[in-house]
Amino acid sequence: MEQFYQILAWASVFLYWLTIAVVTVRVVFKRRVVGVSLAWLMIIYIIPVGGVIAYFMFGELNLGKKRAERARDMFQPFEDWFQRLNDCPVHQPELLNDHSRPLNDLCENRLRIPALSGNTLSLQDAPHTILRSLVEDINSAEHMIHMEFYIWHPGGMADEVASALILAAKRGVKVRVLLDAAGSMRFFRSHWPKMMRHAGIELIEALAVSPLRLFLRRMDLRLHRKIVVIDERIAYTGSMNLVDPAFFKTDAGVGQWIDVMVRVTGPTVSVLHGIQSWDWEVETGQRFLPSLPECRLPNTEDDSIDMVQVIPSGPGMPDEIIHQVLLLSIYQAKESVVITTPYFIPSENLLHAMKGAAQRGVSVDIIIPDKNDSLMVEWASRSFFTELLTAGVKIHRFHGGLLHTKSVVIDKTHCLIGTVNLDMRSLWLNFEVTLAVDNEEFTRQLSWLQQEYIKNSSQVDPKTWQQRHITNKLFEQFFYMFSPLL
């Protein structure tokens, strides 16, 4: 019997060693960013068995068999639809400035989505203004309302939006709502889903979370986009979830969330609707390709011409597309780069790009919240401060709440704004969308807003930062090791 147990023990050791070896080879052959691979290998070696299980659950971008098959079947018809936008008169790449033209070439070649002119953009920076504007547009809707959000949290003015949607559905407007299952968990447990469905609203949980699917699909892959399309003539996108900040995470100790949304009219509405249609079909299998835009060229002095490039990312989209756009934007900067992000864990390439910009004389400002709702992200973010401060990057810690705005302004002439955080999850994992805007007036508005954030911030002093307690440095280095996975 003793010999049997010895054989069993040796067999278990061999099986464990073989499993570790196979997973190690799998990690290496995935050829991801070196830091990501090293972080996973460290977890696999340090945490017996649990590290291997964690890797199979969260280590690879697995959309699930059914969704992956749908995405493959969808690609050609959606590519054809986006290609037809090139024939619109409002596709005028010659109007792009020298900074935006390389971004447009990158996105057209990789995404097949062209930049379109003839849009009107309105920057909305107050939550109640955003929600009130949304309710008014919903009340005026005549044909359709399509919405998708990462978080819908009941309470306050978010309930007014829900009531407006129910009334719209009852008067015959076609309403479709797609919400991330994890982010909107509180909403799906409330009374609102039943009321909405009873009124005729199609309400779908995206990427449902279930213990039965732990090894069939990556559970932390989330729908992080925020898009609203009304009557195919008005769209909203930006950083704000469908929440009233006065009722959302009030016990987190970080203050109210600070967000922006962009209200869009013009041809870009159809492009955002196309992205939304993609997400709906991936989740439900139902196809409704939107109508092509009217593509009417502006012919009066009152019409503003905004060249807008819609850039979606996530499974099914070209790898690292938004990461490439960010790098290209920073490398092209000649005078200034101003970035706002709630979660700051840059890739190694982005870190070098920001340091390089500052070292060649470009003014680089990063605005982040003073307090973060994620302790791990907070400590991991601090681990990059020393390198950035030494290179001349200015870091500002915002005191007016949890700054959730995701924006980049380059040389005060063009900008990026949308749902993308400067962290690994947004850059490589989640479904995201951002707008690259080539319009000086809109960019000036966003730049002014960023300066208001800076006025309500304290700048990190390099000398004071170097004198922080040794315990803080140890925590920073510990979480830095896991930063590629956060």
From TrEMBL:
<dbReference type="InterPro" id="IPR001736">
    <property type="entry name" value="PLipase_D/transphosphatidylase"/>
</dbReference>
<feature type="active site">
    <location>
        <position position="406"/>
    </location>
</feature>
<dbReference type="InterPro" id="IPR022924">
    <property type="entry name" value="Cardiolipin_synthase"/>
</dbReference>
<dbReference type="Pfam" id="PF13396">
    <property type="entry name" value="PLDc_N"/>
</dbReference>
<feature type="domain" description="PLD phosphodiesterase">
    <location>
        <begin position="399"/>
        <end position="426"/>
    </location>
</feature>
<protein>
    <recommendedName>
        <fullName>Cardiolipin synthase A</fullName>
        <ecNumber>2.7.8.-</ecNumber>
    </recommendedName>
</protein>
<feature type="active site">
    <location>
        <position position="404"/>
    </location>
</feature>
<comment type="function">
    <text>Catalyzes the reversible phosphatidyl group transfer from one phosphatidylglycerol molecule to another to form cardiolipin (CL) (diphosphatidylglycerol) and glycerol.</text>
</comment>
<keyword id="KW-0472">Membrane</keyword>
<dbReference type="GO" id="GO:0008808">
    <property type="term" value="F:cardiolipin synthase activity"/>
</dbReference>
<dbReference type="InterPro" id="IPR030840">
    <property type="entry name" value="CL_synthase_A"/>
</dbReference>
<keyword id="KW-0594">Phospholipid biosynthesis</keyword>
<keyword id="KW-0443">Lipid metabolism</keyword>
<dbReference type="GO" id="GO:0005886">
    <property type="term" value="C:plasma membrane"/>
</dbReference>
<dbReference type="GO" id="GO:0032049">
    <property type="term" value="P:cardiolipin biosynthetic process"/>
</dbReference>
<keyword id="KW-0812">Transmembrane</keyword>
<feature type="active site">
    <location>
        <position position="411"/>
    </location>
</feature>
<dbReference type="InterPro" id="IPR025202">
    <property type="entry name" value="PLD-like_dom"/>
</dbReference>
<keyword id="KW-1208">Phospholipid metabolism</keyword>
<dbReference type="Pfam" id="PF13091">
    <property type="entry name" value="PLDc_2"/>
</dbReference>
<keyword id="KW-0444">Lipid biosynthesis</keyword>
<feature type="active site">
    <location>
        <position position="226"/>
    </location>
</feature>
<feature type="transmembrane region" description="Helical">
    <location>
        <begin position="35"/>
        <end position="58"/>
    </location>
</feature>
<feature type="transmembrane region" description="Helical">
    <location>
        <begin position="7"/>
        <end position="29"/>
    </location>
</feature>
<comment type="similarity">
    <text>Belongs to the phospholipase D family. Cardiolipin synthase subfamily. ClsA sub-subfamily.</text>
</comment>
<feature type="active site">
    <location>
        <position position="224"/>
    </location>
</feature>
<dbReference type="InterPro" id="IPR027379">
    <property type="entry name" value="CLS_N"/>
</dbReference>
<feature type="active site">
    <location>
        <position position="231"/>
    </location>
</feature>
<keyword id="KW-0808">Transferase</keyword>
<feature type="domain" description="PLD phosphodiesterase">
    <location>
        <begin position="219"/>
        <end position="246"/>
    </location>
</feature>
<keyword id="KW-1133">Transmembrane helix</keyword>
<keyword id="KW-1003">Cell membrane</keyword>
<keyword id="KW-0677">Repeat</keyword>
